[in-house]
Amino acid sequence: MAERVLELDDLTVRFRLKRGELTAVDGVSFAVERGQTFGLVGESGSGKSVTARAIMRLVPTPPGQIPRGTIRFEGRDVLALSDAEMRALRGRRIAMVFQEPMSALNPVFTVCDQISDALRTNLGLSKRDARERVVELLSLVGIPSPRRRLDSYVHEFSGGMRQRVMLAMALSCNPVFLIADEPTTALDVTIQATILELITGMIERLGMSLIFITHNLGVVAHACDVIGVMYASHLVELGDKREIFRNPQHPYTVGLLNSIPRLDTQAKYLTPIRGSVCNMMAPPAGCKFHPRCEHAMDVCRQEVPKLREVASGHFAACHLHDRGGSP
Amino acid sequence: MNGDVPAGAALLEVKGLTKHFWLHADIFSRLAGEKVQVLKAVDGIDFHIRKGETLGLVGESGCGKSTTARLVTRLIEPTSGEVRLKGEDLLSFSAARLKETRKQVQIVFQDPYSSLNPRKTIMHILGRPMEIHGLAASWMERREKVLDLLQRVGLGVEHIDRYPHEFSGGQRQRIAIARALSVSPELVIGDEPVSALDVSIQAQILNLFRDLQEEFGLTYLFIAHDLSVVRHISDRVAVMYVGKIVETGPAAALFADPLHPYTKALLAAVPEADPEKPPPKLTLKGEVSTPIDPPPGCRLCGRCPLETRICAEQSPPLVDVGAGRQVACHNI
Known about the structure:
heterodimer, A: 327 residues, alpha/beta, eight-stranded mixed sheet, 24% strand, globular, B: alpha/beta, Rossmann fold, four-stranded antiparallel sheet, 12 strands
């Protein structure tokens, strides 16, 4: 088995809010191997982004807290690191790309200033060396005539080009691990195609590992090796990409795949999942999906199902499997 | 308004519809004699929608889809062109006549969080259009109708006295649809009505659009950027690129065998939710062209693999290629 770069075990993130307590991530465990692309999918509010932020130690405390679980990155316990040790990790070993490049980049600094800031702080480069490295990085992410764009501001770039700048910044200190949180969601489909190609190509060439967070099943189908499906703070299914698409084992994954309109066929009606996501401030007991599930049994209303192996390397958290059934 | 349009005849006809925005340079640059730039958001488009059908309008951001929706409803005034509803020119209507017409053409917007007034109850939101158009004289009558509407869009009657913030995104979009239906329109325009919703909810709302079309014989202009959504809901599709329609045709034929290089590129870029399908790729060079002072030729100039000399000189007209399809390309 390849080396596990990142291991999450029973990660739980809770927020204490005025209105009450909200568990955004509940007992999530998975591992990412070196060179692997891990797709984390789920609908809004399922806890994908909070999981990513917890790994980067970017969950604000308070109101957030991590009452349970561990995050091990390259063998070190991330949650036990001091702030200084964490700063040394961020950027240099593990970096993140956000969805909205316009709000993640600073509008009053030039592109060169922003990227070289990290280079000078983290790698101690001189101003001139940093500038040369920025040129390299911008051409690496496919920005045409990078030397001419160095002193441009973010607003002078289009959406796709801004995402390239974000990527250049994330890659600036040669991290071994990248977390991309919905990096193509705000982009048009033709731009998305180029950014996807860029990210997957880059990961492969640099031998990095990637967590790709998205709600778009089409994107994970092509960009990822392994997929984790989240629903209402739980990881409900985990497995190889092909397995998940060909042989989904959790009723939510099945429902999600059936909900998507297809390009190659036209059915008169789609098969949606009934109802809507539970209120996370007052989630139902037992399996969080049971109010929407057509297979719901008594046990589903009482006990939270555990993630168990249903086939080699394929895990699902559903009581159906305890009884030898499948959705 | 004159009588009913028979099924299959054009309910809405748009000819040469154009909307230009003049970008005013500041006074100093104008004094310095700088030219005022023109943003050609919609630049001479033709299409029609037959009664009872769904026309899908698809394109990337900034291509003029939403401007088209606003022009067709006269929420903004076009620079030139014709919009004919049941054969009559909507653009020549007086304010009173236009108000009367609003009953027949309704719109559902993208964001159900900003399109519903947070201070009004569902009863008010759905009852007010009926009141304005004199469709239900008494409060009791309106309440009856609102209860009926709620059930038709799949919401419980107990929701009638609640406020928008008490609903989820999907439920809000159901309310927005109910509001559009409250005045019994013939044409409903959906401007990205499912883009803000999660996939599992999106499927519910798409099914609702279908059900309501069957039940009330509605005609739809459905605007979206998601190609699989458009493919699913539409009978015919029009593809827009930088203010122009580049291809139209029956949905099945257009998606199975796209003719225009831009349509081809758009389809090749969609990541399909099936790992066995070819990965998405971009078959065009460069980035989307700007609608500000565009050059005279085809808008795809500089990006297109089929480009020849004529493309830079003349904008290709939308011409019939048989089987109900039209393409705007010099090289097909």
